[in-house]
């Protein structure tokens, strides 16, 4: 499998939250669930890194034996930030302030003076490594994970192309784009010329599913290319996209929105585009060409995904997210898609006391009537 390659977006938006929420608290809290805080290739054995999740720092480290851990950032001895000066020695993370070491279970194993270690432990967080992604669990009350972040589509996946950028927004708003069918041929025109929905939004516990058939026109194409998109939403932390194109080309994208501060997110995209090898060539040469094609195609899909769907000033989603307002009672119309159904599904990821206010329907407008024919 190819080693993932970093990608620095040329279309990164400006810093900050939407101007709508500069002076007041946003209407939706941070949802519960698994959120991506990095890619596996970013954290080699012996490395320490700091990421943000729900307004707090998270320290990631990988022991020399390859064990991945996530922890609250502060040493329980005297409060030093482990991401600022912590180091990995063998299977322990060591605080640089006084040399206290902590084992893979988080328990303090030694001091820097050779004396008996105190009864102290790191505040470890549930962390999983799936599909080349590092996922950390967040729950508003600190409850343990109630489900696991497992892929739906079979087969190995390694993000050959990847991207991380920041913008205004909220995970629920980002994934709502998937069921907002009305914006596809409007905001993303002319690159998306038609969209059909053979399978609308269905839910399976913490996962949601949508299938779209679209005609897209990449740069240089003379006519639209029929493309099938299968979306699987894994909570509100992200979606797994399986794309089928003509000539046997397939693409898998993990697109993840991680809340880092109120109404501010980090967007991570991990992409692998598989290219079939030429059938008439010897097998080793065919595999080599398929591997090279996978790399080139993955980088192209990442560029196209960013350029057309995300960061384009005229046709991208991010400029909209950077300035929009969340409406708990939208005035929907036929053709919008199953937004209400999606929001009721999303309500399960919030504390019970928050979602009735944020998600109740407007009694003067039957939102379900806007979803007829889905």
Report on this structure.
With 374 residues, the chain is an alpha+beta fold. It is 17% helix and 32% strand. The chain has seven helices and 18 strands. A hairpin with an 8-residue loop joins strand 14 and strand 15 (225-234). The longest helix is centred in the C-terminal third of the chain and has 28 residues, at 283-310. The protein starts with 32 loop residues before the first strand and ends in a 15-residue tail after the last helix.
How is this structure best summarized?
The protein has 374 residues and is of the alpha+beta class. It contains 7 helices and 18 strands.
**Strand residue percentage:** 25-35%
Biggest sheet architecture:
7 strands, antiparallel
C-alpha termini separation: 39 Å
Helix/sheet category: alpha+beta
Look at the structure and give the mean pLDDT.
87
Instruction: Based on Cα principal axes, name the global outline.
Output: globular
Q: Number of helical runs?
A: 7
Radius of gyration: 22 Å
Biggest sheet: strands side by side, in what order?
12-18-17-16-15-14-13
Low-confidence stretches: 1-14, 356-374
Provide the succession of SSEs. EEEEHEEEEEEEEHHEEEEEEHHHH
Q: Tell me roughly what share of residues is in helical segments.
A: 10-25%
β-strand number: 18
Q: How does the SSE layout of this entry go?
A:
Layout: E1 33-39, E2 48-53, E3 56-62, E4 68-71, H1 82-85, E5 87-89, E6 92-94, E7 101-102, E8 108-110, E9 124-125, E10 127-130, E11 133-138, E12 161-168, H2 171-179, H3 184-187, E13 192-204, E14 207-216, E15 225-234, E16 238-244, E17 250-261, E18 264-274, H4 283-310, H5 317-321, H6 339-346, H7 355-359
Antiparallel strand pairs: 1-11, 2-3, 3-4, 4-9, 5-6, 6-7, 7-8, 10-11, 12-18, 13-14, 14-15, 15-16, 16-17, 17-18
């Amino acid at each position: 499998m190819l080693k993932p390659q970093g990608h620095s977006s040329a279309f990164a938006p400006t810093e900050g939250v939407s101007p709508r929420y500069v002076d007041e608290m946003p209407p939706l809290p941070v949802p519960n669930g698994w959120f991506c805080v990095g890619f596996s290739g970013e954290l080699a054995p012996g490395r320490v890194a700091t990421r943000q999740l729900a307004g707090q720092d998270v320290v990631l480290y990988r022991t020399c034996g390859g064990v991945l851990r996530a922890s609250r950032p502060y040493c329980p001895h005297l409060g030093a930030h482990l991401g600022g000066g912590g180091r990995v020695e063998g299977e322990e993370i060591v605080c640089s302030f006084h040399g206290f070491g902590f084992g893979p279970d988080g328990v303090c194993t030694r001091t820097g003076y050779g004396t008996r270690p105190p009864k102290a432990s790191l505040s470890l967080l549930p962390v999983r490594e799936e599909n080349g992604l590092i996922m950390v669990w967040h729950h508003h009350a600190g409850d343990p994970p109630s489900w696991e972040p497992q892929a739906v589509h079979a087969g190995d996946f390694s993000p050959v192309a990847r991207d991380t950028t920041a913008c205004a927004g909220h995970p629920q708003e980002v994934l709502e784009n998937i069921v907002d069918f009305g914006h596809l041929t409007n905001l993303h025109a002319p690159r998306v010329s038609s969209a059909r929905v053979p399978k609308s939004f269905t839910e399976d516990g913490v996962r949601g599913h949508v299938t779209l058939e679209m005609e897209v026109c990449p740069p240089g194409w003379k006519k639209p290319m029929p493309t099938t998109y299968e979306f699987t939403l894994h909570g509100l932390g992200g979606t797994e996209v399986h794309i089928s194109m003509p000539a046997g080309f397939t693409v898998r994208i993990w697109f993840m929105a991680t809340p880092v501060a109120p109404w501010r997110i980090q967007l991570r995209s991990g992409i692998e585009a598989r290219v079939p090898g030429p059938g008439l060539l010897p097998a080793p040469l065919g595999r080599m060409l398929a591997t090279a094609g996978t790399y080139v195609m993955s980088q192209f899909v990442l560029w196209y995904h960013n350029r057309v769907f995300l960061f384009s000033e005229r046709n991208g989603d991010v400029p909209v997210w950077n300035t929009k307002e969340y409406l708990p009672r939208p005035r929907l119309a036929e053709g919008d898609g199953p937004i209400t159904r999606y929001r009721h599904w999303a309500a399960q990821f919030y504390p019970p006391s928050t979602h009735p206010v944020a998600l109740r329907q407007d009694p003067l407008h039957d939102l379900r009537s806007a979803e007829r024919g889905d």
